[in-house]
Amino acid sequence: MLKRVLIPFLSCIFFISVLGAKNIKNKAIAIVDNQTILMSDFNKIADPIIANYEVMLKTQGPMSEEDLKNLKKGIFEQIINEKLALKQAKAENIKVSRRQKDDAYNKVKKRFTTESEFLEELSKKGLTEEEFKSKLEEELQVIEVVNKEVSSKVVVPTDDEAEDYYNDNKSLMIDPEAVRARHILLKFDKAKGESATLKQAKKIKKEIDNGADFATMAREHSEDEWTVDSGGSLGLFIRGQMIPAFENVAFSMSVGEVSDPVKTQFGYHIILCQEKRMEQQKEFDEVLKNQLKEFLYKNRMKTAYQEWIEDLKTKSNIVIKHDVTQDLE
Fold first, then answer.
1. Domain 6-158+287-320 indexed as CATH 2.30.30.100
2. Are 264 and 156 in contact (CB under 8 A)?
3. What is residue 60's predicted lDDT score, i.e. its pLDDT?
4. CB-based contact 116:78 (threshold 8 Å)
5. Burial of 272 from C-beta contacts in 10 A (0-12 / 13-18 / 19+)
6. Which of 70, 93, 185, 234 has CA atoms 20 to 30 A from the CA of 312?
7. In this structure, are residues 279 and 174 in contact, taking their beta carbons and an 8 Å threshold?
8. Whether domain 175-280 has CATH 3.30.565.10
9. Most confident option among 115-119, 182-186, 239-243
10. 7, pLDDT greater than 50
11. Average pLDDT, whole number, for the chain?
């Protein structure tokens, strides 16, 4: 229900843009006033974001072509918006403190095990340490100007407004049916064939039926690198978050039940149902009240930000030279 916070989303894109992927295609895809946006600029930001989305959507299968196009369009629009915001920040002579710059620098640096690894990554991207710090400063200026021109002017919703929204949208205030589960994934063995994978899955299932601990078996046998360390834990999920073949079985199981091997595009799964929650109406308690206030605030932020950006666009000359959803020739 809750939408992304605007500022963290901007910040996320900014940091990715500094240490993003390299790409040799340098065709101009847009011009914002006198600033040219190259295809390499776009790819530097888009590639890691798309990769992250693919990881998040892994349990639902590959991203559709339409979803990929929409994601690229959104990233492209955000890049243009950031150019406009940076121009406005410089026009307003927005300053950032030494502490802000140091904190941002250290935040990125902490992603690397050693300083030499960090500096090596900068070198790969063709950046000196000073150039990197300069880019960070610009990114912080954008965040500051958005805070000044947008965030500071958005009115925080009241308790009454949150309750009114709840009463007007009770049909949406539902905790959907959910399942908590673990799984063991055995990927198809191309050399031995699918039947060998199924045979191994059945063997593991038999050991679990005979008393073997599911989480221990998952750590020993599962080939899902994202859940193996947690004993195959998938946490709590609702319908639509897993691929249909997996989901249909998981939601039909009883608590404590272990499934027979379930075939999906990823391989064979053995599923343990740990908990089931039925759909129920949310109560307007303190937690939900605060969630709704946050939701309403983010919606106001989103609207105010978009209005501000549209105003900046009317004062700028923007030329789109290439559709980023199409490959360059």
1. no
2. no
3. 64
4. no
5. buried
6. 70
7. yes
8. no
9. 182-186
10. no
11. 89
